[in-house]
Amino acid sequence: MKANVRRVLVIAAHPDDEVLGAGGTIAQHVTRGEAVYVAILAEGASVQFPNEPEMIAVKQSQALKAAEVLGVKDVFFGNFPDQKLDVHPFAQITGFIEDLVRKINPNIVYTHHFSELNRDHRVAYEATSVAVRPFSCPSLERFLCFMVDTVANWGQGVAQYNVFSNISSTLEAKLIAMQAYETEVRAYPHPRSLEALRHMAYRNGTMVGLPAAEMFQLVVEVHR
C-alpha cells in the first residue's frame, strides 16, 4: 500500500448499497487518483432468492461489474447471512472489517447511516464504528455515513446529512454501475429505478446549489 495515495474504504451491508449510497462519490475519488476499496458484508441473496444458492455468486458477479465501472481497486465479500447481521456473532463481523482496516489503512471510511430502518444497515454502522476507533485505525481522517435512499428512514424522521458531494461529472457512472445489478433495478417510481436515482441526485444537489449530489453525515473528522 503506497503511503502517498489516499485510501478510501466503503463498507456496505448488501450488494448494491455501495452504489446507491456512494456510487458517484466513489467515482469522484477514483478520478482524483485515490484508491477505493469496497467491502460487502452480507451475501444479499438468500432471503430474496430462497432455495437458489447460485444467486450468491450472481450477486458477487454483479458487484464486481459495478466496481469495475466505478474504478474500485478491490472488492471484499464477508458472505455473512443476509438480513441476519443482527443475530450473527458481532465479533465476527467487526473482525472481518478490522482485518480490512489493518490491510488498507484507510484515510476515509463510508458506511450506512446509524438511523436506517434495515437492521443489517445499522449493524454495518456499528461494526464499522468499532473497527475504525482511533487506536484501531490511526490513518483515519474522515468517517461518514451515506444515505441509501430507498425509504431507509421510513417513519423515523430525516437524518442530519451535512456533507454534500458534487457528483455532476460521475452521476452517469453511478447509473451505469447500478445497471450491473440487474436483480435490483426496478421500474420508476421505485427508488431503485435509474430515473428515481437521477431525480434524487438532482434533488440533493439543489439543496446546496449543485447540479447533482450525494449526501452524507460526517461522524468524525481528524486533522493530522
In short:
The chain is an alpha/beta fold and 224 residues long.
Structure description:
The protein has 224 residues and is an alpha/beta fold. The protein has one domain (7-221): Rossmann fold (3-Layer(aba) Sandwich), CATH 3.40.50. 37% of the residues lie in helices and 20% in strands. The protein has a seven-stranded mixed beta sheet, sandwiched between helices. The longest helix has 17 residues, at 54-70. The two termini are 20 Å apart. The model has no long low-confidence stretch (mean pLDDT 94).
Task: Give the count of structural domains.
Answer: 1
Which term fits the overall shape?
globular
CATH topology name, in short, is: Rossmann fold
Mean pLDDT, to the nearest integer, reads: 94
The level of helicity is: 25-40%
Distance between the termini: 20 Å
- What's the helix-strand series? EHEHEHEHEEHHE
- Report the radius of gyration as a whole number of Å: 16 Å
CATH homologous superfamily (4th level) name: LmbE-like
Structural class computed from helices and strand pairing: alpha/beta
Q: How many β strands by DSSP?
A: 7
| DSSP helical segment count | 6
Identify the strand order in the major beta sheet: 3-2-1-4-5-7-6
Multimeric status of the protein = single chain
CATH architecture: 3-Layer(aba) Sandwich
